[in-house]
Every structure is written in structure tokens, then in C-alpha cells.
Design brief:
The protein has helices at residues 5-12, 15-35, 42-49, 53-59, 63-82, 93-105, 108-112, 115-123, 131-154, 164-185, 189-203. The chain is mainly alpha-helical.
Length: 217
């Protein structure tokens, strides 16, 4: 994420202060997810996080500052996971399949959905001025896929006709839509269908389509 006022504030906090702030954010994210932004109030958050009103106001003087911090916190968790070495920076079809397989096999996919996607769906219904931060978070997520697809092109694994940005948007949209349908169906099958269809489309641009093909079950 880009440097923000919140990031500068965290640099000035003690270890104890950082832990308190993180605890508040974790509980705020959970409350917003389960109750919604408008139904989440300071009293609920104080009880859940075990902090005083003065502590809460110290770290987050306004609701907008809290919501912005929750967006950053949730986005950082998602982006860190996707930037890990586990998926080899998404520079192969097999790394995309491994990513899809992780979520398809995870029971929480249909129980919890996408933490960032669910947060965005809740927040965009409010009048809080946080849309820019939400858009930035999803753009960074998309760019992780785009950068991997561009590396595939540079390494000769993907044809020059492929548009990495459009394909990255497809992968992210398939994930978000598949997660929502999985939650509705209480089954990961819609997520599996959406992700594998998106990856199959990426494969149509592979220079060696049959190479390294592995099935996600």
C-alpha cells in the first residue's frame, strides 16, 4: 500500500501501541463484516477489543479513519498472501492452478467468502469517502496477476496477443464472483467452475498449451 497518515502514525507507536491498534482493527473488521458499517458502533468495538473510549479515539478519532484503516489492514493481509513465494509470483499456469486449488480446497471459502470483497460490498453502500482506497487495494491485487502474466510473456510462455491487464481482471472477477456464488450455494463448486474457466481462458494464450498442464480437483 502507498504511504498513508495511518502508516506514519504506526511508525511512532510503541510495540504495545501497535498491538492495541492491530487488535482494534481485527475486531473492527469482524464487526463490520457481521453487522455492517452503520450497525457497528464505538461501544461494541470497545467491548470486543477490550479498550477504553480514550484509547479508541486516540487511534481512530473518526469512523472514516477507522474504516480506512480496516481497508488497509484487510488489503495488506490479502496482498501479502498473494505476493508470497508459494505461488511463484504467478508466472506460470501451474502457479495459477495452485492458487485456485488453495481456495477450492478451503472449506472457509464458502463459509467466509473473500474478506476484502465482503468488506468492499459493505462499505460502498455507505457515504464514507473511502472508494479511492478500496479501488487502490483491488488494483494492487489485480496487478499481482498482471505482473505475473507479463513475466510469462517475457519468458515466452504467453503469446504477445495476450493482454495481461484484461486477463488479470478476469482472474480477479472470477475469484470475487465465484466466492459470492459459493457463499450462496454453501459449496465451493461455483468457485471452482469460475476459477478454472478463467485459467482455461488464460491457457488459450499459452505458447505451449499442453506443457505443464495439471488438473485442479
Amino acid at each position: 500500500m502507498e504511504a498513508t497518515t495511518g502508516a506514519r502514525v504506526r511508525q511512532k507507536l510503541t510495540d504495545k501501541g501497535q498491538a492495541t491498534r492491530a487488535r482494534i482493527l481485527e475486531h473492527a473488521a469482524e464487526l463490520i463484516y457481521t453487522k455492517g458499517v452503520h450497525a457497528t458502533n464505538n461501544e461494541q468495538l470497545r467491548r470486543a477489543a477490550g479498550v477504553s473510549g480514550s484509547q479508541l479515539n486516540h487511534y481512530f478519532p473518526t469512523k472514516e479513519s477507522l474504516v480506512l484503516a480496516v481497508i488497509e489492514w484487510q488489503a495488506e493481509r490479502v496482498l501479502t498472501f498473494h505476493r508470497s513465494e508459494r505461488f511463484t509470483h504467478f508466472d506460470s499456469l501451474d502457479s495459477l492452478r495452485e492458487w485456485a486449488g488453495h481456495y477450492i480446497a478451503y472449506e472457509g471459502s464458502y463459509q467466509e467468502g473473500c474478506s476484502l470483497g465482503s468488506l468492499a460490498a459493505e462499505i460502498i453502500k455507505t457515504d464514507l469517502d473511502v472508494r479511492t482506497e478500496l479501488a487502490n487495494a483491488f488494483e494492487q491485487w489485480r496487478d499481482i496477476f498482471r505482473d505475473g502474466l507479463e513475466r510469462m510473456q517475457r519468458h515466452g510462455r504467453l503469446s504477445a496477443e495476450a493482454d495481461p491487464t484484461r486477463l488479470a481482471c478476469l482472474l480477479l472477477a472470477a475469484f470475487q464472483g465465484g466466492m459470492l456464488l459459493a457463499q450462496v450455494a454453501r459449496d465451493t463448486a461455483p468457485l471452482k467452475d469460475a476459477l478454472l474457466a478463467a485459467i482455461d481462458h488464460v491457457q488459450t494464450f499459452a505458447t505451449f498449451p499442453a506443457a505443464g498442464v495439471s488438473e485442479v480437483r
